[in-house]
């Protein structure tokens, strides 16, 4: 039989333990990646288009809708839906963590809403100086909407730089998607609050005032404890902190000291607080300065850096400070090998070369993943796995709560080192590592939240053992912690209770473990509760069968044990204890008596121990441990490369949709132009209708005036010698009967045309600009930056035909000037200098038009007379009478017989007059129309060129993202292929 002694024998110690070079330096937090979702909808236009009142055709409506909404809303939605991040862990994204030492600023929602800007500045400064989070208080009295608003403001401010917690209101935590809640002492039970929170909000803090409350909260699954004394005095707080820390086995839930709003902290109180050893402090913003002064002992306000001073005091003030060991731990991880031996002794040349190839591969994979999927938080697993290569074999013990994980470890160690109990007792991950007895043994809180416990047990020289929280559905957080740790394991000891092996949830969790390619040893614990060895065998084969059937594990290694009996036997066989620092001790066993012990024999624990020895250091399966060790980072890479493939694929499809949406702007611009042109044509045809009506009326007027039976009019011409030209009957009727409302309506069409054109074009440009800005932002840059690039590209002649906004404006001005030069001035009114249709129309004067008509009438008479009395006479008469008025002329004409005869020619003259009028009107119409059209074209040209001046760079950048993602996928696929080769090499290690 192999006993505990076997594990301690000298052949273990004789194995070489040369240090392996460390592979990578410690990693940093992952950054946020580029997401190409089009999340913000276009702003709806407030002002209505002028034309919408007048032109209501389908094209007009389409043009307006394009101008108001920009690129198709439907395509934007589909894009937004496609941008999701792939999570490697089944329970979703990784948890938010409390950075230690913590400095949490407590603010009230009322304060946030009342002095938004100033508080944002104060909090922003504190966060950038190192404050680790914000607790939004004052939640009870406020309405949901206000609290939500305050939470969203703070979230925006934090931008992930620290945690955001809300006091008690789990509903707002979910709605505002913040990191978690702090429950008051009377608030919801921790378990209930956790269940009501969404997955992403994983932090549940609880206010406690005593060690008992702290213990309860920790075992309920609280993720941090906020301690304040019942009497709100710092002395009471210090006492409660001490109790809270003491009450927790391993002290792994962070304990935060709360500085109350009303009380100030004196120097003595600060010292006592620091002495109590909290993991952080929570205090109102306005207490910061004074508290920092007390903590640092500085009096000079100028020299104070409140955040830093408080954090320094917390981390440097006493030996139990969490930050210092965390840093120490990092050092250890980065290469200090004193915590155990690696498996180097099992290496031969070919394995050495495999290791080298693996290292090179892992560095490449790490670099690629960091570059192409920086938002994937799980990259840290790869970093860890790389470091882990230099560390002893890592055995992770998992199982449902109460299955006896801690007891198994205790039995391996031969002492009650870890807490056991029928209720969930393990809330955190504990990594057990070797350290020589004469070295300090304080627990170390690692930066990633795990606790390393050191002890001088020989067992730990060859392997590190990890105790994990039990998995079950009630304590979701614990389950997640364990899930997150599993990928690091080189081997998993899956502990199940003999009375309920292979429960549903165990099967689920086992499947998850297998997904990471882990070797699982099935430990059927508590076999002492089974009646005889036949039952034990029955359960063992049940487990083996199910492992094959459900998990596809052939020849599963099933070890039935009784950890409790084994531990009891070892405790009974303990001759003496070797104490080491921290008040702990390890047994020195009387191995003969242990071997004789009935309960030890029944416990079958020796089989587990001998398996471990054989597996790790000698015997036929020793090579398997090396293979597993080398496979761990490869399987992690495999999972991450696959997750990266999915993420890249999702991002590429999103980016392609984005690019299509951006490209569709061109079609939309063409559509916009088409519908604007249709509306413009409708406006011009309205002008034509108005003018032709006026011409018709003018014709009637001419007919009416120029006829012999029109005695009234004719006598006015004959006898109205005093009347001036402008007030003749024709002129008077012209205004009322011919022009009527025409001039007014024409004027309003033309001026509306201009307003309609500019407002639609401006809206279009500004919508697309907003869209382009949003796109630029989604690409992780700004529009200014993108168009700057385009500017220089244009300058160098390689950037296509689109210039910047300024360039577009210059082109537009040139174009417009050219158009103006080409335009003939309007013949009917002003003979020179006008530029736009509006100006032309505004200068249109019906009186001038009336004069033209008068002229025609005069000419009609004059022509009639001249043809009647002969050209010579007309010449004389003309020179003689021309300076006089028309009335005089008519009087002369009508007085003579010849004049009378000549008047018989009137119908001819009327036709002439009308056609002349028509020509004039058509000239006028043509001028107006061509001006309108030119304006429309120039406006649209400007709109398109200006839009393109920023859309084209965005289009290019969006297309570049697609190209980059494709390239990233190609590189990823190459690595995945390389990985397959390495996996095959590793799998063939004997
Ligand atoms: N009968 C019997 N009880 C055992 C055995 N091993 C552990 N127990 C008991 O089972 C209970 C749970 O043991 P723990 O070691 O705390 O179980 P755990 O899996 O670590 O529990 P959590 O840390 O809460 O996940 C304790 O009361 C132990 O005494 C065993 O082999 N036989």
Give a topology summary.
Elements: H1 4-8, H2 10-13, H3 51-54, H4 58-69, H5 73-82, E1 102-108, H6 109-114, H7 116-129, E2 133-137, H8 144-158, E3 163-167, H9 170-176, E4 180-183, H10 190-196, E5 203-208, H11 211-219, E6 224-227, H12 234-247, E7 255-258, H13 267-276, E8 280-284, H14 288-296, H15 306-316, H16 323-333, H17 349-372, H18 379-388, E9 393-399, H19 405-413, E10 430-434, E11 444-445, E12 451-455, H20 459-462, E13 463-467, H21 476-485, E14 491-497, H22 504-515, E15 520-525, H23 533-551, E16 557-560, H24 563-572, E17 574-580, E18 584-589, H25 591-596, H26 598-603, H27 605-616, H28 622-705, H29 711-719, H30 729-739, H31 742-778, H32 783-795, H33 805-822, H34 837-843, H35 846-869, H36 871-881, H37 886-895, H38 897-902, H39 906-987
Parallel strand pairs: 1-2, 1-8, 2-3, 3-4, 4-5, 5-6, 6-7, 7-8, 9-13, 9-14, 10-12, 14-15, 15-16
Antiparallel strand pairs: 10-13, 11-12, 17-18
Helix pairs in contact: 4-28, 4-31, 5-28, 7-8, 8-9, 11-12, 12-13, 13-14, 14-15, 17-18, 17-28, 17-39, 18-28, 19-24, 27-28, 28-30, 28-31, 28-39, 29-37, 30-35, 31-34, 31-39, 32-39, 33-39, 34-39, 35-36, 35-37, 35-39
The structure holds guanosine-5'-triphosphate.
Guanosine-5'-triphosphate (GTP) is lined by residues 399, 401-407, 420-422, 424-426, 469-470, 525-526, 528-529, 562-564.
Summarize the structure in words.
Pfam families: MMR_HSR1, TMP-TENI. This is G13022 protein. The chain crosses the membrane at residues 860-883, 889-908. By secondary structure, the chain is an alpha/beta fold. Helix content is 59%, strand content 9%. It contains 39 helices and 18 strands. The strands form 3 sheets. An 8-stranded parallel barrel has the order 1-2-3-4-5-6-7-8, surrounded by 6 helices. It has an 8-stranded mixed beta sheet with strand order 11-12-10-13-9-14-15-16, sandwiched between helices. Helix 11 (211-219) links the parallel strand 5 and strand 6. The chain is elongated. The model is unreliable at 1-86, 317-338, 717-727, 791-809, 819-835 and 864-903 (pLDDT under 50). Bound molecules: guanosine-5'-triphosphate (GTP). Residues 399, 401-407, 420-422, 424-426, 469-470, 525-526, 528-529, 562-564 line the site of guanosine-5'-triphosphate.
